[in-house]
Amino acid sequence: MSEVDGTIQGHRDGHGFLQRDDGESDIYLSPQEMHAVLHRDRVKVRVIRYDRKGRPEGRVLEILERKKAPIIGRLLHEGGIWLIAPEDKRYGQDIIIPKNGIAGASAGQVVAVELTEPPSMHSQPLGRVTEVLGEIDDPGMEIEIAVRKYEVPHRFSAETMAQTAKLPEKLRPADRKHRIDLTDVALVTIDGEDARDFDDAVYCEPATIGRAKQPNGWRLVVAIADVSHYVKPGESLDDDAYERATSVYFPRRVIPMLPEKLSNGLCSLNPNEDRMAMACDMLVDAHGEIHAYQFFPAVINSQARLTYNEVAAILGNTRGPEAHKRKALVPHLLHLHEVYRALLKARAARGAVDFETTETQIVCDENGRIEKIVPRTRNDAHRLIEEAMLAANVCSAEFIATHKHAALYRVHEGPTPEKRAILQAYLRGLGLGLSVGDDPQPAEFQAVAQATKDRPDAQQIHSMLLRSMQQAIYTPINSGHFGLAYPAYTHFTSPIRRYPDLLVHRVIKAVLAGRKYHLQVTELATSAVHTRKLRPTAASMAQAKSQVKMTAEAQAWEAAGAHCSANERRADEASRDVEAWLKCKFMREHLGEEYAGTVSAATSFGLFVTLDDLYVEGLVHITELGGEYFRFDEVRQELRGERSGVRYAIGTRVRVQVSRVDLDGRKIDFRLVHDTGPTLRGARDKAATAVEELKAAKDADRGHKRATKKVAGKVAGGRARKTPVAEAARKTRRTRR
């Protein structure tokens, strides 16, 4: 049997899987094999057997590397023994703490633990407390847990802080040298109300392209904060930025990639402040095609800090109060809207995939508790900025590719053969008359999306289209961006919060100066790839085969891409973990309550349902669907009752009751409420309605005794014993007994 290396992924039920370094199928590890290892250990495994479906099962041969990161959990005192119950249930084992190792912590507190003795086949791991985080209900504790659980760097080094302190407060005369002065251009920033750093500013005016005698296009300027002027390769500030690779956004808190003096100060395009920027100056024709562009270092002065809602209001009513307040900027905003509509035509012409999805925002109070969950509504101002940023990003990719310089591309490949086959079967089963080919193109996906947008099951169809696509990654091997239908695409527009953008800026600056940017190799890059390896894409697999022939610098770019991609996933996981924790804590206060919802996913073990008003997702286990056998149809992505024929698919409307909340496991369980049969809930609802009718009748006219008795009879009895209300209540009581 073969031997393979990989990383352990534990499961809360005691077993685990080996995520193989070569990207092949995971290997199952039994609970017995998991006794001597922990979640995230690197091990060597031998495949010992295959199950009936051909899935491999393994035996641990050797532990290659133990994670040194602390484990977060709650300190418990049971039977005279101190132990830690890991917050991440994938660790599967409690950690025993000697009495002299609790570091003054109290039972029930959240702590960080360092292992002193690893687990074995016959003993539990031992450890000592290294940090006391506080009580589980302390405000912001969920974030403190997440940043340690996912090893998100949240403290800058002393060297970085010392270097940052030496940076100037404002631009110096030397900073302005060799830069084009754009301070007289009416550039503005457009962001959300809660934004604190502003890394992009935009401006638009009519322009004449070619030999036309009047404007037939637009000049679009996208100015991006010049972070590379302050963050230099080889310095501690750059090392910390690379280690983080991205800013991490939580409700009420951000873990920035750069210190605040840069992210909210020197590198933020604050209004009425001179700032250094990298400008992408474009000519866009009436069809939305970029006719010409140029990059150059600039000095800008943002004329205003605008919000999406403010700009949308101005575009919707150029004589309204918002427009009157920004009277001088209204013509420029209208030109921005014009170029946006042209760019939108070009998007449609190239067949870019465009799905309208609902994103939510958690609104918390001062104590960190959820007050409400609201949808983020996208308006034309959001889309306007998005199209302007896409234009600048695609220009940067073309600029780098034209000059044949190494860089990190943002690559999004089409569906894998397996996902493509599932999608094709699904679309055939719907009888749409539309499908995707064996070499699918973005336009085919967009055609299906457009043709089905008004169908009742549109959400289900669009969800399947989205799930068939691969995740986007950073890589030096350009294979295009499938979703946006671009042959080459990079990230250029957010160097304050994304390290790949910073690298792209350095490359563009080097090309403009007639030299080459040499990426420096760090040990951090190779270790990050090792511990958080992503599933390989076709491009990365092709490169892996020629790895031996790659130069050291080519390997450095590959490592940097894998590092940034992995840390992007880490940031997403940490953010989702905190949101899930907050939602679980919020839903604990609503146990037993009923809500309307929509099936968001169907699986072999049940349905995931998203509540309409709360935007919270939970599981209806298959055992809660009724007293019959439900079979999962993978092609149609639905559960179907064999006896009744009842179908539950994505988009199905249901009513559920909140039955269980597991805060540690970040899980919410629902129970399906069957509205077809009489229930006590229905009886109570009707009785409550009858009481309201009675009150209304009494208040309207106390002299109308006949009306009062008729309504009272529905509640009090008499002939009401035969009414649906009384019958429903009687049947429910009988069932409960």
Task: Provide a compact summary of the structure.
This protein is an alpha+beta fold and about 725 residues long.
Descriptive key words:
alpha+beta; five-stranded antiparallel beta sheet; OB fold (Dihydrolipoamide Acetyltransferase, E2P); 737 residues; single chain; 26% strand; disordered C terminus; 18 helices
Describe this structure in words.
The chain has 737 residues and is α+β, with helices and mostly antiparallel strands. The protein folds into six domains: 63 residues, OB fold (Dihydrolipoamide Acetyltransferase, E2P); 79 residues, OB fold (Dihydrolipoamide Acetyltransferase, E2P), CATH 2.40.50; 219 residues, no CATH class; 181 residues, no CATH class; 82 residues, Beta Barrel (OB fold (Dihydrolipoamide Acetyltransferase, E2P)), CATH 2.40.50; 57 residues, no CATH class. Helices cover 32% and strands 26% of the residues. It is built from 18 helices and 31 strands. A five-stranded antiparallel sheet has the order 3-2-1-4-5, with no helix packed on it. Strands 8-7-6-9-10 form a five-stranded antiparallel sheet, covered by helices on one side. Strand 2 and strand 3 form a beta hairpin. Helix 2 packs across helix 3 and helix 9 packs antiparallel against helix 11. The C terminus is likely disordered.
